[in-house]
């Protein structure tokens, strides 16, 4: 993987999420992908679990701020802003890619204003 390929994957992820295009999960993730909404949460495993999670029609804006790639592992920093109700998140995504360009392991580290970053 390189930064351009990861950027294209993130843009397709954004499009699919925005359009609630659950079938696109199969193009983005492996059949047994692990999708963690937080590093300590139980993972969503497989297409069906991720598709169910993606059913979120809430309007948002998303901006890629940086992409770092080391072989098949990437870290992406994104800013996500929801409009109704208004809420901003700064996320770090850890992405582990397979040779076919799909993600087999996704971990989200989300932070937002006014929330504690410690236990």
Automatic annotation (TrEMBL):
It comes from the Bacteria. Residues 10-101 form the SnoaL-like domain. Transmembrane segments: none annotated. InterPro entries: NTF2-like_dom_sf, SnoaL-like. This is Nuclear transport factor 2 family protein. It comes from Microbacterium schleiferi.
């Amino acid at each position: 993987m390189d930064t351009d390929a990861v950027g294209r994957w993130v843009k397709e992820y954004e499009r699919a999420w925005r359009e609630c295009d659950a079938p696109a999960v199969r193009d983005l993730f492996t059949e047994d992908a692990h999708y963690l909404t937080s590093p300590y949460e139980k993972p969503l495993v497989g297409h069906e679990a991720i598709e169910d999670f993606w059913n979120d029609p809430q309007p948002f804006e998303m901006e890629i701020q940086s992409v770092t790639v080391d072989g098949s592992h990437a870290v992406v920093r994104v800013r996500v802003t929801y409009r109704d109700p208004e809420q901003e998140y700064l996320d770090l995504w850890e992405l582990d890619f397979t040779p076919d360009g799909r993600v087999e392991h996704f971990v989200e580290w989300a932070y937002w204003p006014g929330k504690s970053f410690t236990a």
